[in-house]
Amino acid sequence: MSGRTASPSKRTLFPTLRFRTKIILGFAAVLVISAGSMAFSYFGFERVSSGVGSYRTSVSEADLARNIDRELLGYRSAARYFVVTGKEDDAKAALEAEASLKAAIDQAIKSAKKPARQESLNKLAKEFSNFSATFAKILQAKRDSALLVQNQLQRNANLLKYKLDDIGNNASDAEAQAIEFGTKQVNAQFQTASSAASNFILNSDQAVAASALARLKFVDNSLGAVYSMDDKIVAGLKDAKALLGAYRQALEKLIANAKMIDDLVTEMSGSAGAILQGATAMKADLVAEQQRLDAQSEATIGQTEQLVLILAVGGTLLGAVLAFLLGTGM
Questions:
Q1: Which long-range contacts (CB under 8 A, 24 or more apart) does 83-90 make?
Q2: With 144 labelled, which of 22, 28, 102, 298 sits at a CA distance of 20 to 30 A?
Q3: Distance (Å, rounded) from C-alpha 238 to C-alpha 32?
């Protein structure tokens, strides 16, 4: 009787595990790989979602920076137009534009997320305060000038003309010819000087202002050359000189106001330039940030796709290997 000794021709990898347990372990391994794949997908999605949120915030801030640009251009144009016209309607339009610019800057400050950007916007707000304060000075100077023209310049000009006519009418027969000739000469010279002053009021040309003051000097000399022995005429000539002096003082104040306004306009232009420069720099920074976020999102999407693909292929291969091993009884 011959007997055969059974020798294991195959060795199993998991000799102590049942077949069902092996299947469960195989499926568990596949599930772990699937869970890892989903986890990578989830975190990749979160990174992309965060990038999209940051991108939207950047776009919103860029829109606010463009609003500052637009409102600044409107405010600066309205302010300059008021400087030229001096009309209250134009002043009202400039103040409305100022309020719109302030609202745009305030909204940008509230929406800014980064400290560096908030600091830049605070600098813009400071420059805006300087701009609006300068415009307020211009507005006051223009209003003061308008009151000077109405209450002093025009009033004294009219009173001087009436006074010269009154002097000529009150002259005695003996002095009538000389007084009439002198007052007519004074009146003609004053008309020329007042025309130059009116031109200066319209264009604020300092050369025209200097010409008007020089002509007023001629008027003063001609008025001093009028001579009379009549006390009433002498008193009238004295009043005429006082009116001429008041007219000249009002004109000198107007000239000083015009010079101050020119200096303030230059200062205001500097503040406007600083605001525009800051807004432009902020827009450039935001555009660069948007490009960076876009590139990061693209890179994250690509990396996530690669990882998910690797895990999917790995899971498939592992499943195939496990199926083969289980099928061969190993």
A1: 83/138, 83/142, 83/261, 83/265, 86/142, 86/145, 86/146
A2: 102
A3: 112
Tens of pLDDT along 254-312?
Answer: 999 999 999 998 888 887 787 777 777 776 676 666 667 666 666 666 666 676 677 66
Can you give the residue range of the structural domain that contains 147? 19-327
The number of distinct structural domains making up the chain is 1
Kindly state the tokens that stand for 160. Answer: 């001087």
**Is the pTM of the predicted complex or chain greater than 0.90?**
no
The answer to whether residue 6 sits within a structural domain is: no
Rounded Cα gap, residues 211 and 305, in angstroms: 82
Which residue from 296, 273, 280, 298 is spatially nearest to 62, judged by alpha carbons? 280
**pLDDT tens-digit map of 294-305:** 666 666 666 666
Q: Domain holding 87: CATH number?
A: 1.20.58
The length of the chain, given as a count of residues: 330
